[in-house]
Write a structure and sequence with these properties.
It is built from 14 helices and no strands. With 293 residues, the chain is an all-alpha fold. Helix 4 (58-84) packs across helix 10.
């Protein structure tokens, strides 16, 4: 049963970029309506667990809006990447986030570096070099690829900054706070850019429903549930299949074809994350980065 749930969760998470592309709307419009729907869906669960706010220290409380801002940057740049490069490239760039999170943990939490961390960075650097330094083909662009990398970096900052708050604050309450604050950020950004919020075509609302149901709730919700019953390294490694599944979806829907350069980048980045995540003999398992899109 757990394996079936994991397969469903990974499939849902892998199609985030495809659903964003299908929405075919300004970034702020996609972000606002997605976060508004998610906020409404999370509100009843967060209300029942609202007492967990009292466990936070003033420092942890102040970190929440900053974490939300980094999460907003992640969502904005990831959406931009899906619109400016291929779906496969956007997903590969984002898959770098465990490496960036590891670097941040070393810088801010004093975690020691090891030879395998340097090896992982070298492999990831080679993989991203394959994407960013070669000639572009089809829908892939260097600016879109760079946005995907920035999306990974800002997501890692959100994970690290929200790390202390997540220890005390209930998961449903934290998710509600992130959705509500990001809804406000997207509203402000859209107001500054003068975007039109309505009307939107039916395909837009179908995309929003898919993002909330299959990515935010079905994907992340099931994944969080499985953390209590499955090995964390197995879960993190299973997530590495997302770019390949996303590429299949983009090929079926948009006719995007994988290039040798994309395949090389996917292989190198996958190897980099595997080097980082697979446990050493006698060492504790590495926890997965918090997974959200």
């Amino acid at each position: 049963m757990d394996l079936a749930l994991l397969a469903f969760a990974i499939l849902g998470l892998s199609q985030a970029a495809l659903m964003i592309r299908l929405a075919h709307a300004p970034i702020e419009v996609i972000g606002f309506w997605r976060q508004l729907i998610a906020t409404a869906a999370l509100a009843p669960f967060a209300w029942r667990r609202r007492s967990s706010w009292t466990a936070l220290t003033p420092k942890e409380c102040s970190a929440i809006p900053l974490a939300a801002l980094l999460f907003f940057i992640h969502l904005w740049t990831f959406t931009y990447a899906t619109q400016k490069t291929s779906v496969a490239h956007a997903m590969i760039g984002f898959e770098l986030h465990p490496l960036v999170t590891g670097a941040g943990a070393m810088l801010f939490f004093g975690e020691a570096l090891s030879a395998r961390v340097f090896l992982a960075w070298a492999l990831a650097g080679a993989g991203m070099g394959a994407l960013l330094l070669g000639t572009t083909q089809g829908t892939a662009t260097p600016l879109g690829d760079a946005a995907a990398v920035l999306s990974a970096a800002s997501f890692s900052g959100y994970v690290l900054l929200g790390k202390s708050s997540r220890r005390s604050l209930d998961n449903w309450v934290f998710a509600f706070a992130m959705s509500a604050l990001n809804c406000a950020f997207f509203l402000l950004a859209g107001w500054l850019r003068g975007v039109a919020w309505l009307p939107q075509p039916p395909v837009f609302w179908l995309s929003m429903a898919g993002l909330v149901a299959f990515v935010s709730i079905g994907g992340h919700g099931i994944f969080t549930h499985l953390l209590a019953t499955m090995d964390v390294n197995a879960l993190s490694c299973a997530k590495l299949s997302e770019p390949a599944l996303a590429a299949v979806g983009a090929w079926l829907v948009f006719g995007e074809h994988l290039t040798p350069r994309t395949l090389a980048a996917f292989t190198l980045v996958t190897c980099a994350v595997l080097v980082l995540l697979l446990p050493r003999r006698g060492a504790p398992a590495l926890p997965p980065a918090e997974l959200e899109e």
